[in-house]
């Protein structure tokens, strides 16, 4: 019988890789994980966690302004970017340490360096050869930078957290959640923001009514949008960057941020040596059990380009570890996955949108609540929240819930339980409203 150094070797110590390593080790497996950057992956080190902390920090700009209407007099307020930046990076360091402690406490061997396949069971990690019976690829994804002249003058979300100083002006390329989140952050911190997008819509995969509402509110706040435009090139002009468009127009900025999507990290893995197949989009092809075409090699998370969300990568990694080394055989359920955009204001969504529901179910009922949150009323803000429920007319089940407004993601998480459980509109109606709250609108739609 062939002897291997490890029962499981994991490439990538992000959310999915760490969960798989911990669970597999808990089942008694001999596990090693390779990480070429920092343990914690995109979410913890350069993604959702530090970004959400910036969202919190930026929102104080409006909170302090609104405080006047609530009787608070705050004189001489000012903002110091290095303080926020360094405190956020300090929290990242703390979490990085906790993730490493998790691996260490479960006796998972951590190898710092890039892992490359030599053959289907053998990898090279910085000159060290390692063999494994099972291998899990969890290398995630990275920001995509288009092939346009001067593209290197821009930064990505990876570098945002390390800016030495805030720019006076920033141009953000993209219309998705990352672009809109950073547009809100920088605007609240006093930066002049222009968001450019090649299509005429933002958040194209979201419920159109919510995307339109965010666009309207963002423009009212003073964020500039240049839609339906094609970028030709970036050019260094003195201390500025000149952004040239195909229509001959241009604009100057101090900083340019690429937020036009992400690509799976497959380069340099030596997938050819292992015989692992990839899709046309450059992602690792897997089945419902996260298994590649090579039976002992699995892949989870963003490198598979299924659903690019941290909780999904965690579940996929957990399922693989249980299936390979435990007694519980299960698969990730991709239905009714809640998601959020931490823009200003934020969005939350779960289940089917109106168009998808009509195409799938035929007869649907739509309930909406368009209201001005109580806090905004007293603060003198005209921003309105929008809640939307999509109901299957045949069964009365709520098949989708979508909202934009203060704390929408926090509210949406609870609603997602109801949608996942298949509760009906009648059951929503039977629930007593918690007054006065924004969330009570969910049970008052008639």
Shape designation: globular
What is the annotated CATH architecture of the largest domain?
Answer: 3-Layer(bba) Sandwich
Strand content: 15-25%
**Overall pLDDT metric:** 95
Structural class of the helix and strand makeup?
A: alpha/beta
Which residues sit in consecutive blocks of at least 5 with pLDDT less than 50?
A: none
Q: Measure the end-to-end span.
A: 67 Å
How is this structure best described in words?
The N and C termini lie far apart (67 Å). The protein has 446 residues and is of the alpha/beta class. Strands 1, 2, 3, 4, 5, 6 and 16 form a seven-stranded mixed beta sheet that branches. A five-stranded antiparallel beta sheet has the order 17-18-21-20-19, with helices on both faces. The protein has helices at residues 15-26, 41-46, 48-66, 81-105, 157-160, 177-188, 208-221, 271-274, 310-325, 354-361, 374-379, 408-421, 425-430; strands at residues 6-11, 31-35, 109-112, 115-119, 122-125, 128-137, 141-143, 169-173, 192-196, 224-226, 231-237, 240-245, 250-253, 255-258, 262-264, 297-299, 339-341, 347-351, 364-371, 385-392, 398-404. The longest helix is centred in the N-terminal third of the chain and has 25 residues, at 81-105. The mean pLDDT is 95. The protein folds into three domains: 6-143 and 263-325, FAD/NAD(P)-binding domain (3-Layer(bba) Sandwich); 151-259, 3-Layer(bba) Sandwich (FAD/NAD(P)-binding domain); 339-443, Enolase-like, domain 1, CATH 3.30.390.
């Amino acid at each position: 019988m062939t002897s291997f150094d490890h029962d499981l070797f994991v490439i990538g110590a992000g959310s999915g890789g760490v969960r798989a390593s911990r669970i597999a080790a808990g089942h008694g497996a001999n596990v090693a994980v390779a990480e070429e950057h920092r343990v914690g992956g995109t979410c913890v080190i350069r993604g959702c966690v530090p970004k959400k902390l910036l969202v919190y920090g930026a929102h104080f700009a409006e909170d302090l302004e609104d405080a006047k209407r609530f009787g608070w007099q705050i004189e001489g307020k000012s903002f110091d970017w290095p303080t926020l930046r360094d405190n956020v990076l300090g929290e990242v360091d703390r979490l990085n340490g906790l993730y490493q402690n998790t691996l260490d406490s479960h006796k998972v061997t951590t190898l710092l360096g890039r892992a490359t396949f030599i053959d289907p069971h053998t990898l090279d990690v910085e000159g060290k050869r390692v063999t494994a019976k099972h291998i899990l690829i969890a290398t995630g994804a990275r920001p995509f930078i288009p092939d346009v002249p001067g593209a290197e003058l821009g930064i990505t979300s990876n570098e945002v957290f390390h800016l030495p100083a805030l720019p006076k002006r920033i141009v953000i390329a993209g219309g998705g959640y990352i672009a809109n989140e950073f547009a809100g952050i920088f605007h609240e911190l006093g930066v002049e923001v222009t968001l450019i997008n090649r299509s005429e819509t933002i958040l194209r995969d979201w419920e159109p009514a919510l995307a339109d509402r965010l666009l309207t509110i963002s423009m009212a706040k003073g964020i500039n949008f240049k839609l339906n435009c094609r970028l030709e090139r970036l050019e260094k002009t003195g201390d500025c960057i000149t952004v040239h468009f195909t229509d001959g127009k241009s604009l100057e900025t101090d900083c340019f941020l690429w937020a036009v999507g992400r690509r799976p990290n497959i380069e340099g893995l030596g997938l050819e040596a292992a015989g692992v197949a990839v899709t046309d989009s450059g992602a690792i092809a897997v089945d419902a059990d996260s298994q590649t075409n090579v039976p002992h090699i699995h892949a989870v998370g963003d490198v598979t380009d299924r659903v690019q969300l941290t909780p999904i990568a965690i579940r996929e990694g957990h399922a693989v570890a249980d299936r390979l080394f435990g007694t519980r055989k299960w698969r990730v359920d991709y239905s009714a996955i809640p998601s959020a955009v931490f823009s200003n204001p934020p969005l939350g969504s779960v289940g089917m949108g109106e168009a998808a529901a009509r195409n799938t179910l035929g007869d649907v009922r739509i309930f909406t609540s368009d209201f001005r949150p109580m806090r905004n009323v007293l603060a003198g803000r005209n921003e309105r929240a929008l809640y939307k429920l999509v109901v299957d007319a045949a069964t009365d089940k709520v098949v989708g819930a979508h909202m934009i407004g203060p704390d929408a993601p926090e509210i949406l998480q609870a609603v997602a339980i109801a949608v996942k459980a298949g509760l009906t509109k009648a059951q929503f109606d039977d629930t007593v409203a918690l007054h006065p709250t924004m969330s009570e609108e969910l049970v008052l739609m008639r």
